[in-house]
Specification:
about 475 residues, mainly beta, Porin, 18-stranded antiparallel barrel, two-stranded antiparallel sheet, Porin_put, signal
Length: about 475
């Protein structure tokens, strides 16, 4: 409770500052409480590291201090995730929660006499996407420090330009030399009657020491920017600062409503140089995904399909998979990163790089008022060469970062429901099952101790205010 009191005090200081500095400022508070109880087996190890049953909660509160249509400030607090019974998170007897975070803290303003909008501070970042979320930088952890400029040229064309400082001064190794990681991105959304297109590009400056002792989101950066098995410490970079770049385009067609067609394409490269053992650390690849869905009165049938380039047979020449930062791709609610609220998901991965797959689903099934269901069935295969397992760095099956070769498969079934109890109160139920089919000749003894099945049955209660 002490931390909650601190949160309320901080909010009070924000309100007080706004009142003192600008009497006419409007204060808008919004947010949500999430409660989750779940019985699951989401690790692919026979020896379980966690309980099968857990209960937890999270509170998110956003405070907007609005001076005018041209100026406002936003701060976003998060309390949790708080696992019930966990003393370090404040969920044990006596509570005293210690998990209070500031997710966003930014100011939005319009350049005088123009339509150029500026956002400065801690803010969410993502790249344009139309199919199932952002496979490069779109997870719940894609918050960062930076500046975003937005401009609408006319009804059909706009522009968004951002600079994000992902890492800086987080290492004790050669402090001050090559320890920053910066990204600059540009998108040009184009809109017409019944269609959208959004070409985009992003360039990154990767400091040679920027992955050493990385912070909160470091595991995603290491897994996404380097070939499989590298830890970020053994990098022998070409220069103090090394290049990374991405190009992409996405769009959707709704001219034939209720039919919707959409696609996303991305190609990228991150060049770190070489590892201490001489291995090339360049990672470059591509991903293409698409969706087709047809909205009917009581159901929306749809099909999602994708193909991502995979690693070749040379274990020393880098990676041929698309580099990523903090992905949040959610084609399904268990295998991929599409779970509701704080429910568990992404047991395979939060990005489909190195795989191809198909998900057939029936969404928005509704026969009763305020009650909807979604049934989804997926089949996935790897696009990575088998030598990455037989002779390369892949040492086992890692939950959340499952590596599939061309001889490996996985399939998934989900049945999810949402019931709107009140306008702002939603009860969600999720049931999912994922099964791995890994080739014995490829994996051999590495399958020892592997549980090929993951499942979950969970309830989520969400109060949005």
């Amino acid at each position: 409770m002490k931390k909650v009191a601190v949160l309320l005090l901080a909010a009070g200081l924000v309100f007080g500052a706004a009142h003192k500095g600008a009497q006419a400022a409007d204060i808008k508070v919004s947010g949500e409480w999430d409660f989750n109880t779940e019985w699951n087996n989401i690790g692919f190890a026979k020896e379980k590291a966690d309980d099968l049953f857990h209960a937890r909660q999270r509170l998110r509160t956003q405070v907007d201090i609005i001076a005018s249509e041209s100026l406002k400030g936003t701060v976003f607090f998060e309390v949790g995730d708080t696992n019930w019974g966990n003393s370090s998170e404040g969920g044990a007897l006596g509570t005293d929660g210690k998990v209070v975070e500031v997710r966003y803290s930014y100011v939005d303003w319009v350049v005088p006499q123009t339509d150029l909008r500026v956002r400065m501070g801690l803010q969410p970042f993502s790249l344009p996407n139309f199919v199932a979320g952002d496979p490069i930088m779109g997870s719940d952890d894609s918050d960062g420090a930076g500046i975003t400029l937005s401009y609408q040229f006319n009804d059909m064309a706009g522009m968004s330009l951002f600079w994000m400082r992902a890492e800086n001064d987080n290492t004790t190794i050669d402090r001050g030399v090559g320890n920053a990681m910066d990204f600059v991105g540009l998108s040009v959304p184009l809109t017409g009657e019944g269609w959208q297109l959004n070409p985009w590009g992003m360039y990154g400056n990767l400091g040679k020491n920027s992955l050493n002792e990385v912070g909160e989101n470091g595991e995603f950066l290491i897994a996404g920017l380097l070939p499989y098995g590298q830890d970020g410490v053994s990098v022998v970079a070409k220069d103090s600062n090394n290049p990374a770049w991405w190009l992409g385009i996405g769009g959707e067609l709704t001219t034939f409503d209720p039919l919707r067609l959409a696609f996303d394409f991305a190609y990228g490269k991150a060049d770190w140089g070489k590892a201490a053992n001489g291995q090339d650390l360049t990672r470059q690849g591509w991903l293409l995904s698409g969706i087709a869905e047809y909205k009917l009165d009581y159901v929306t049938p749809g099909l999602i399909a994708w193909y991502g380039s995979g690693d070749n047979s040379d274990t020393m020449d880098g990676s041929e998979r698309l580099p990523t930062l903090s992905p949040g791709w959610g084609a399904t609610t268990l295998g991929w990163d599409g779970a509701y609220g704080i429910s568990d998901g992404a047991v395979l991965s939060n990005t489909p790089t190195g795989t191809w797959g198909v998900v057939a689903r029936l969404a928005d099934i509704s026969f009763f008022e305020n009650l909807t269901h979604t049934l989804a069935v997926g089949f996935y295969t790897g696009t990575n060469n088998t030598r990455m397992v037989t002779s390369g760095p892949v040492g086992g099956v890692e939950s959340g970062n499952v590596y599939l070769t061309t001889k490996d498969h996985a399939w998934e079934v989900n049945f999810d429901s949402q019931y709107k109890i009140y306008e702002n109160l939603t009860l969600a139920a999720e049931m999912g099952f994922v099964r791995l089919d890994l080739d014995k000749d490829v994996w051999g003894s590495k399958l020892s101790g592997v549980d090929k099945t993951a499942y979950k049955v969970g309830l989520n209660l969400n109060y949005a205010f």
